[in-house]
Amino acid sequence: MTSTTTWTTGRPADSGDQKSPTPGAPVPPAPKGHRLAGLKDRLYWGVSDALAVTQRNLIAYTRIPEMMVFSSIQPIMFVLLFRYVLGGAIHPVGYTYVGYLMPGIFVQTVCFGAMSTGIGLAEDLGKGLVERFRSLPMARSAVLAGRTTADLCRNVFVVLLMTVVGVAVGFRSGTGFFSFMAGVFILLAFAYALSWGSALIGLSARNAETAQAMAFPLLFPLTFASSAFAPVSSMPGWLQAFVRNQPVTVVIDACRHLMVVGPQPGSTWKALAWIVGMLAVFGPLAVRKYRRIA
Q: Is 19 in contact with 115 (CB distance < 8 Å)?
């Protein structure tokens, strides 16, 4: 006497009662209601898979607290360095220097933090973890969505920490709570878009060290050749055109207006356009790269 054990994943499956179509016979299209139900099921399981991978990555962060500690020390050091060492030599028009500095520090922090997305994916590839994920009945986009969402959660913590540090050194928002939170939203959305770009780099690298070496030369000039630490007008004329129109400066200016002096719709919409454009480009490219190498 034998028994049969059936393992299920909880996902919708085709019914075994249906007869297979005759080979070569045209397959009738599924009714519209069935197509919509199938789309809803795929969307539900895709979101569920992404949340599961997000939880896995967040648990990994809690198990390596040293990574969070040391990744927070660097931006704190930048705040103290520019606030107390260089701040007396820089006098932006219409701002106190600490008010001018902190939005730039916020953006710089999430820019460098975005590298962790690519480094983490490169590590997972090297350890064979991506192949294990691929063997499971899960959405192909869940690995990337889970990693970028976990890094977004980490950025929320980092921005909160940097806000506390900024207040401690004299930073004050002159625009009110809701305007300040709008600036935080722009900041986090930009960080999320950068994480997808970093994911593309991580999937193109052979290991974590290569991923870091590829990302740093791209982010370093964008961060420091920006309006983060000094007014653009103080820079050479040939550099100003690039600095004014590159995405980091655009996002910094939008955050600075929202957090310090008052919103300017033009700068906000320009920053949102850059964010949407980066997501539209980096997201599909990263998913396509993942499907090719996994």
A: no
Query: Do residues 169 and 79 lie in contact, with contact meaning Cβ atoms separated by under 8 Å?
Result: yes
Q: Give me 109's structure tokens.
A: 């922090």
For the chain, percent helix, then strand, then coil, each to nearest 5?
75, 0, 25
Instruction: Specify the pLDDT at position 265.
Output: 76
Cβ atoms within 10 Å of 97's Cβ, excluding its own: 19
The closest of 52, 53, 95 to 199, measured between CA atoms, is: 53
- pLDDT profile of the chain (294 residues), mean per 10: 42 45 53 63 74 83 72 84 83 86 92 87 82 75 87 89 91 88 94 93 86 88 90 90 93 93 83 95 90 74
The reported pTM is: 0.81
| Phi, psi for residue 23 in degrees, rounded to 5 | -55, 130
- Say if residues 119 and 211 touch (Cβ distance below 8 Å): yes
Residue 36: how many other CB atoms lie within 10 Å: 11
Contact of 260 with 175, CB cutoff 8 Å: yes
Degrees, nearest 5: CA angle 210-214-215: 120
